[in-house]
TrEMBL record:
It is a multi-pass membrane protein. The keyword Transmembrane helix applies. GO terms for molecular function: pyrimidine nucleotide-sugar transmembrane transporter activity. The chain crosses the membrane at residues 12-32, 44-65, 142-160, 180-200, 212-233, 249-269, 276-296, 302-321. This is S35A3 protein. The keyword Signal does not apply. NCBIfam families: nst. It is found in: Golgi apparatus membrane. It comes from the Eukaryota. One of its GO terms (cellular component) is Golgi membrane. Its main location: Golgi. It holds the Pfam family Nuc_sug_transp.
Length: 332
């Protein structure tokens, strides 16, 4: 049992480490791919989302194939038994998948109606909603220090992401009405993000199905909802230039990193939890900003950024520091 525990602990920190690497490299390559001046049309973000889902499904099928002794017969049986013959289990994942799709659209609404500072700061409430859902849905117990560290983390991330550019005239002209719409969109996105993450964690930890089967189920719905997004937002452009317009080597790197993200997040939720996922993501925001300063040279850190970075790092240690004695009760 002790060796099992130490293995889970290793997997927990390994998955969190990979998540920091994946999020950081995704942010940097995505920013770089979006700022490159290329001839012809730029790649469609909506199509990249679908392609990433399909790649994620393919990777999970390969992992299930490997887990079943590389036998095609066994793979077919597992997929039939776990996905087709258990429609209720599969449908359970339509909920988080649908919520994630809704959330992506809400953030689009939010950014159209809010200035960047208000958006970034308000969106950090998802750190707290995740903790609240973890406590109410999973019965997680958090100490006073851990609640405090979550508040510090929220404030720190808000400072880190505080935009340095003065608002443009268009941003200043936002009416009170449209700001209310934007704020409502962010608040609903915060609650839906917290709920979907914890709901997925609950499903992963309560059932016997493997994390990869669950990811295939999530990916199938993600691809369907994503295709709807392509049709609604970019239908016209896809008819003109095709689904893969503007794709180049860098686009494929971005899409692959996005697909890897889906796998890593599932592993993090399985072996760690959603709250720790929040800390890993926050650390990667700081890392990617610093790398972007030294490498892409498109960002100059301000004192506000450094203050926020210190808060995030302090919160990470504070959360872990209090969690350790509770996690390992003294053995008689």
């Amino acid at each position: 049992d002790q060796s099992d525990n130490s293995m889970t602990l290793k997997l927990k920190y390994l998955s969190l480490g990979i998540l920091v690497f994946q999020t950081t490299s995704l942010v940097l390559t995505m920013r770089y791919s979006r700022t490159l001046n290329e001839e012809g049309p730029r790649y469609l973000a909506s199509s990249a989302v679908v392609v990433a889902e399909v790649m994620k499904i393919a990777a999970c099928i390969l992992l299930v194939f490997k887990a079943n002794g590389c036998s095609f017969g066994a793979l077919r049986r597992v997929l039939q038994d776990e996905i087709l013959h258990k429609p209720m289990e599969t449908l359970k994942l339509a909920i988080p998948s649908g919520i994630y799709t809704l959330q992506n659209n809400l953030l689009y609404v939010a950014l159209s109606n809010l200035d960047a500072a208000t958006y970034q700061v308000t969106y950090q409430l998802k750190i707290l909603t995740t903790a609240l859902f973890s406590v109410s849905m999973l019965g997680k117990k958090l100490s006073l220090y851990q609640w405090l560290s979550l508040l510090v983390l929220m404030v720190g991330v808000a400072f880190v992401q505080w935009p340095t550019d003065p608002p443009t005239k268009a941003q200043k002209d936002l009416t009170a009405g449209s700001q209310v719409v934007g704020l409502m969109a962010v608040l609903v996105a915060c609650f839906s993000s917290g709920f979907a993450g914890v709901y997925f964690e609950k499903i992963l930890k309560e059932t016997k199905q493997s994390v990869w089967i669950r990811n295939i189920q999530l990916g199938l719905f993600g691809a369907v909802f994503g295709l709807m997004g392509v049709y609604v937002y970019d239908g016209e452009r896809v008819r003109e230039h095709g689904l893969f317009q503007g794709y180049n080597m860098l686009t494929w790197v971005v899409v692959s990193l996005q697909a890897l993200g889906g796998l890593v997040i599932a592993a993090v939720i399985k072996y760690a939890d959603n709250i720790l996922k929040g800390f890993a993501t926050s650390l990667s925001i700081i890392l990617s900003t610093l790398i972007s300063y030294f490498w892409l040279q498109d960002f100059v850190p301000t004192s506000v950024f450094f203050f926020g970075a210190v808060l995030v790092i302090a919160a990470t240690f504070l959360y872990g520091y209090e969690g350790k004695p509770m996690a390992n009760p003294v053995k008689a």
